[in-house]
Amino acid sequence: MTAPDLLALARPEVPPLPIYNAGLSSEAVRARHGVDRIARLGSNENPYGPSPRVAQALAGLAQQVLWYPDADSSALRAAIAARSGTTAAHVVVGNGSESILQMLCLALLSPGERVLAQRPAFGLHEIYPRMVGAGVELLDLSPALGFDVDAWCAALARGPKMAMLANPSNPVGCMFGTAAFARLLDATPAGTLLVVDEAYVEYARLTPGFPDALPMLRDRGSAWIVLRTFSKAYGLAGLRVGYGIASDAALVQLLDRVRTPFGVNLAAQLAARAALVDEAHMRQAVARTVVQRDAMARALQAMGLRVAPSATNFLFVDLGRPNGPVNEALLALGVIVKPWKEPGFTQFLRITVGTDEDNALCLQALRDALAC
Ligand SMILES: *Cc1c(COP(=O)(O)O)cnc(C)c1O
After folding, report:
1. Is the CB of 312 within 6 Å of ligand 1?
2. How far apart are CA 68 and CA 250, in angstroms?
3. ∠18-23-24 over CA atoms, to 5°?
4. Whole-number Å distance between alpha carbons of 260 and 73
């Protein structure tokens, strides 16, 4: 078949979708530029990795892989529930929290319904709703590279079916503080599902004023879900496991109907349970990263660059010039970051905070790249 025929076979929503921009792998950069040392600062991974308990938990895995995993992730859900002051019936686990975003769209959205999200945002906040035919309204940042709380409240009051609210934001790093978050909750009508994506909550808790969302949400009468992940602070990005804590067991049961039954594999379930047992390891890594983030922000500012305030493990940096050539120069020096490609943000790089060595390599490469 020719390409036009195939396009006619597709659902009309699909051909215009952008492909998620996952960035370049270390192998690709090594092969293309012949560099040995790579600083992987493109995907907000935790360079310190998971607790040693994860390796112990996975040691006997080869003998177990003939069995399907527990389709309900029962033990993992119970462990998450116990730590979040809820019950397993309110917890959903997915193949990364991105898969829970997809389940939410499949279960709740019909073509033509409206979803509210931020621009710039985590790409899947827009891609998954569009995939099922929903319309996405994107709100702009404030001039100071923060959330525009008034615009969010006004747009929420118009009653979208769903609101994708990352707190803190990826890629910007900004956050809704406690008072702003309370205002958002007040502005949200009962018919809107509030999706609070807290992928970076473990980092953000170290920023004064970051809201403790769960108790605030529990005081509301309507539907919400808080999404979290083992990919960032817990250092398990390669295993793909994330979770949601929902207002109602009935919401989890809706998601059970659309999810892939064995989506969270055996290794992911074992590793996530082991990681939860060693919170101290996670907290240590997070604390180190936060200190390094602030040092990195000061160094970038000293180079004359504008850096958005961040409550996360990355920085959104305004180069004041197109990011493409700078990114190419960084790649040639072995530094992988994320050049933002949306209109209006093509002067920005999102830089993950790495180890001291990674960060030093990145800063020196940026100085070199910007000098020419
Ligand atoms: C990283 C990230 C996620 C998804 O993480 P998973 O690896 O799919 O669990 C979700 N939301 C935001 C905002 C993220 O940055």
Report:
1. no
2. 26
3. 135
4. 13
DSSP string, 188-251: --TTSEEEEE-TTHHHHTTSTT---HHHHHHTSSS-EEEEEESSSTTS-GGG--EEEEES-HHH
Index of the ligand 1 atom closest to the CA of residue 94: 9
Closest CA to 203 of 238, 240, 228: 228
Which tokens belong to 8? 């006619």
Beta bridge partners of 91: 245
Tens-digit pLDDT profile for residues 167-217: 999 999 999 999 999 999 999 999 999 999 999 999 999 999 999 999 999
How many Å apart are CA 258 and CA 256, to the nearest integer?
6
Provide the residue ranges of all domains of the chain, joining segments of one domain with +.
6-49+280-371, 52-278
Among 340, 364, 278, 369, residue whose Cα is nearest residue 119? 340
pLDDT at 23: 82
Task: Report how far ligand 1's centroid is from the alpha carbon of 372 (Å).
Answer: 35
What was the pLDDT predicted at 372?
A: 59
The residue among 327, 332, 289 whose CA lies nearest residue 21 is 327
C-alpha–C-alpha distance, residues 139 and 154, integer Å? 11
User: Under 8 Å CB-to-CB from 148, ≥6 apart: which residues?
Assistant: 139, 140, 141, 142
Cα(98) to centroid(ligand 1), Å: 6
- The answer to whether the predicted template modeling score (pTM) of the entire model surpasses 0.70 is yes
Residue with tokens 């993950």: 352
What architecture does CATH give domain 6-49+280-371? Alpha-Beta Complex (3.90)
Q: Give me the CATH topology for the region 52-278.
A: Aspartate Aminotransferase; domain 2 (3.40.640)
Ligand 1 pocket, residue 45 CB under 6 Å = no
